[in-house]
């Protein structure tokens, strides 16, 4: 069956990202794209921290960075600061860029370990530009400083989720996407194939389609309620199941920090996402160990200013849909699954879902091969991200609450155990299945959580000295020099992409 009509159900971040990207399809024949959303139902509206591949999504759309950031009160993000995770009083940054760079084909952390063992006690963080810039609250883009002796600076954005969806809506509507307001009341399936044939709106209007993209959020209106796809529950690995979100205007004199902060509490953790006009905040917690009132109280007690809205309480079950693409329905966003926001991976998964869908899409119809490939690749992506998230919870020495005792002692997937053991042994990290997180990401979080390497790749010992040591020292000095000349992040935003007051 040819695809002439694409229906997107849901107008949250996922729905409008899909609409914006699909509106750029040059198909050679007309394809009608309709997005259905309900203002009465609304969106979760809390996904505000992104990771570097998000820049590519905006490039794919041809969006001007300054214009977009200005429209969404955006700021830059160099990484995530984790406070109280490995143990109380601890803090480390998971940076978006690499530690140093490979020397003689050897990843930098092996070299660091070699010198560290020989008595050089400089922390590895000194060799990462994003960490040092974040520490001093400074920011610049690689284009602003021409240095070919350092790797480019890696960054992502913090965005106001509601404004970003609005920005994409205007983008998509300008390119022909038709928005339909109203609630979907019913979904019709073909008796033989089981494909979705149409949706019925609450005013009785019937909207037929050939390909349906389910962006209806946690409820999974098509993928679950209509197609009964099933859900793989990961609560045993990722036990948090609640969040309370609350914005605040900064009153503590701090400017917008160029990083997200994640502070662990007794049964979960709190995020702080600095935008130009406010901070986004939220407390993710586990209902088995903490009540809503307690979680709200902890959040309010740890804000950089007075609450700017009523608290928004959310419930979720960590895990993934058993199939992301089922018949003629592709689930994107929260309808596909949710692993919690610790490493800001949800919008990223929307992005990679869209990329795969566009790459596989044929207007001649849907094949089983497409569906299987999409499901296999997405399943692997989810599993690798899941392991990375579990690492934060499980690798801790915290024993100050029942929640942390559970996390410290819980069973973890064998794939994660292997990763930790290999790293402990000689610092080796293998990226599997094209996984999202880099060697530096894994090394940063493992070391940050207190997992120490006991050895390193023996090839690091074969590198020529004193030349290698000289290069090693120069990396630290160059990073410090560049960061010292960077403007404060707040000043950078005011000059580069100021948002209206
Ligand atoms: P939603 O925002 O829920 O949108 C669903 C849409 O479907 C709405 O438009 C709604 O009106 C429509 N709809 C539903 N039912 C019907 C119906 N019957 N008829 C018509 N329309 C309907 N991600 C990140 O990348 N970074 C983060 O920092 C981050 N933080 C998060 C924190 C929390 C606590 C949570 C819960 C999520 C977070 N996420 C984060 C995830 C992120 O918010 C979502 O991935 C993203 O917003 C996409 O949501 P969505 O569009 O799938 O769903």
Brief write-up:
By secondary structure, this protein is α+β, with helices and mostly antiparallel strands. The protein has helices at residues 13-22, 53-61, 65-71, 108-117, 129-135, 161-174, 221-226, 292-300, 346-360, 368-394, 402-409, 414-426, 439-448, 467-484, 489-496; strands spanning 5-9, 32-37, 75-77, 79-83, 91-95, 156-158, 178-181, 184-189, 196-201, 206-208, 211-214, 231-233, 242-245, 260-265, 268-274, 279-285, 312-315, 319-321, 325-326, 329-331, 337-338.
Strand order of the largest sheet: 5-4-14-15-16-13-17
Annotated CATH architecture of the largest domain: 3-Layer(bba) Sandwich
* Major sheet size, sense and barrel closure: 7 strands, mixed
> What is the first-to-last residue Cα distance?
50 Å
> What general outline do the C-alpha atoms trace?
globular
Beta-strand level of the residues, as a percent range?
A: 15-25%
CATH superfamily caption of the largest domain: FAD/NAD(P)-binding domain
Q: Over all CA atoms, what is the radius of gyration?
A: 23 Å
Number of strands: 21
Quick one: CATH class of the largest domain?
Alpha Beta
CATH fold description of the largest domain: FAD/NAD(P)-binding domain
Mean pLDDT: 95
Present as ligands are: flavin-adenine dinucleotide
Low-confidence stretches: none
Helix count, DSSP H or I runs of 4 or more residues: 15
Category by helix and strand content: alpha+beta
């Amino acid at each position: 069956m040819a695809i002439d009509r694409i229906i997107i159900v849901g107008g949250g971040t996922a729905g409008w990202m899909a609409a914006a990207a699909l509106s750029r399809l040059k198909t050679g024949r007309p394809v009608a794209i309709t997005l259905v959303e309900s203002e009465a139902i609304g969106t979760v509206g809390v996904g505000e921290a992104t990771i570097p591949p998000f820049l590519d999504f905006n490039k794919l759309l041809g969006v001007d960075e300054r214009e977009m950031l200005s429209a969404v009160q955006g700021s830059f993000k160099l990484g995530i600061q984790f406070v109280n995770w490995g143990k109380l009083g601890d803090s480390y940054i998971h940076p978006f860029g690499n530690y140093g760079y490979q020397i003689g084909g050897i990843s930098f952390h092996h070299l660091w370990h070699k010198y560290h063992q020989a008595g050089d006690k400089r922390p590895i963080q000194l060799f990462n530009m994003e960490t040092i810039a974040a520490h001093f609250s400074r920011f610049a883009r690689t284009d602003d400083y021409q240095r070919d002796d350092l790797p480019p600076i890696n960054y992502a954005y913090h965005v106001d989720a509601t404004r970003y969806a609005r920005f994409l809506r205007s983008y998509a509507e300008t390119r022909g996407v038709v928005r339909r307001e109203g609630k979907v009341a019913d979904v019709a399936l073909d008796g033989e194939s089981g494909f979705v044939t149409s949706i019925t709106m609450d005013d009785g209007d019937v909207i037929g389609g050939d390909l349906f993209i389910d962006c209806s959020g946690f409820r999974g209106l098509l993928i679950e309620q209509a197609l009964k796809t099933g859900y793989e529950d990961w609560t045993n690995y990722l036990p948090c199941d609640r969040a309370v979100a609350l914005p605040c205007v900064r009153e503590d004199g701090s400017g917008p920090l160029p990083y997200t902060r994640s502070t662990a509490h007794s049964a979960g953790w709190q995020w702080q996402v600095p935008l130009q006009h406010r901070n986004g905040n939220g407390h993710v917690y586990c209902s088995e160990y903490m009540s809503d009132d307690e979680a709200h109280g902890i959040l309010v007690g740890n804000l950089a200013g007075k609450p700017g809205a009523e608290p928004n309480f959310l419930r979720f079950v960590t895990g993934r849909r058993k199939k992301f693409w089922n018949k003629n329905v592709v689930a994107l966003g929260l309808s596909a699954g949710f692993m919690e926001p610790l490493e800001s991976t949800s919008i990223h998964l929307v992005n990679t879902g869209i990329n795969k869908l566009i790459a596989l899409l044929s207007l001649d119809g849907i094949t089983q091969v497409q569906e299987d490939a999409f499901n296999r690749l997405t399943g692997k992506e989810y599993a690798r991200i899941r392991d990375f998230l579990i690492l934060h919870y499980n690798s801790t020495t915290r024993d100050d609450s029942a929640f942390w005792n559970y996390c410290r002692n819980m069973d973890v997937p064998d794939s994660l155990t292997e990763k930790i053991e290999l790293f402990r042994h000689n610092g080796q990290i293998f990226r599997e299945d094209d996984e999202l997180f880099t060697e530096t990401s894994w090394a940063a979080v493992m070391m940050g959580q207190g997992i120490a390497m006991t050895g390193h790749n023996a090839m690091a010992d074969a590198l020529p000295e004193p030349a290698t040591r000289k290069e090693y020292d120069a990396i630290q000095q160059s990073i410090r020099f560049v960061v010292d000349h960077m403007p404060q992040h707040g000043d950078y935003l005011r000059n580069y992409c100021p948002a209206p007051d």
